[in-house]
């Protein structure tokens, strides 16, 4: 895989607060190699390491996108949800930005059934069929449609397991990460100082609580994905 220049600079990361970790009492000792200092009771993340692993992740997703691989971006906490949806839509990726429903990946046959039900209900609603049903039935189906839209709306076009999963917060999305590990799906994970860097295939040390930090990391990754997709088009 050819390494490329992704315009990752330390000043930009400093401005976004990527370097701020958790309090020194709330940390995982395995993160020690990624921490450069302590300041006012907070661990400071080594941004040189962040830049290195972010660049590696960009190389990986570029290469995968240039071979038409499919991506899933996961980030369900409030500070990440909007950034996840925007980034995924921009790069034409699947995403989950609300509660992760256990078994989305490991029980894929069940997920496929739910997605088909979701698509059927959307078509019925667009055709006005729900409004022609008895009020009780219509209300029940509309509630079901709303539920499916909330939790599965970001993967409604997913027809199989993703090739790579990008996870914004390791601890928050631990169930999703474990499903990927079980299935052998490669993962790229944004990890703060309270995480385990050995669980994901590529771990990017960064502040997972600041919106600006999350947005910066995701923007770099989706830019690389978009470039990879353009590369496929140019070479096809």
TrEMBL record:
The keyword Ribonucleoprotein applies. Coiled coil: none annotated. Its main location: plastid. One of its GO terms (molecular function) is structural constituent of ribosome. GO terms for cellular component: chloroplast; mitochondrial small ribosomal subunit. It is found in: Plastid, Chloroplast. The keyword ATP-binding does not apply. One of its GO terms (biological process) is translation. Keywords: Chloroplast, Plastid, Ribonucleoprotein, Ribosomal protein. Pfam families: Ribosomal_S2. Gene3D superfamilies: Glucose-6-phosphate isomerase like protein, domain 1, Helix hairpin bin. Belongs to the universal ribosomal protein uS2 family. This is Small ribosomal subunit protein uS2c. The gene is rps2.
């Amino acid at each position: 895989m050819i390494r490329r220049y992704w315009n990752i600079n330390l000043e930009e990361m400093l401005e976004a607060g990527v370097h701020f970790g958790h309090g020194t009492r709330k940390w995982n000792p395995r993160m020690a190699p990624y921490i450069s200092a302590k300041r006012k009771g907070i661990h400071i993340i080594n941004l040189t390491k962040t830049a290195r692993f972010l660049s590696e992740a960009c190389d990986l997703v570029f290469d995968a996108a240039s071979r038409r691989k499919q991506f899933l971006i996961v980030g369900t906490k409030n500070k990440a949800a909007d950034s996840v949806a925007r980034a995924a839509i921009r790069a034409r990726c699947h995403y989950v930005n609300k509660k992760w429903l256990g078994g989305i990946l490991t029980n894929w046959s069940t997920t496929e059934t739910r997605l088909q039900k979701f698509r059927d209900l959307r078509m019925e609603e667009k055709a006005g069929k729900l409004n022609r049903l008895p009020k009780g039935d219509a209300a029940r189906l509309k509630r079901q449609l709303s539920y499916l839209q909330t939790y599965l709306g970001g993967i409604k076009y997913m027809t199989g397991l993703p090739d790579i999963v990008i996870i914004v917060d390791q601890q928050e999305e631990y169930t999703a990460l474990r499903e990927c590990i079980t299935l052998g799906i490669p993962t790229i994970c944004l990890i703060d100082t309270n995480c385990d860097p050995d669980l994901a295939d590529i771990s990017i040390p960064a502040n997972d609580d600041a919106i600006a930090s999350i947005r910066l990391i995701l923007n770099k990754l989706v830019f690389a994905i978009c470039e990879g997709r353009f590369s496929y088009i140019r070479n096809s």
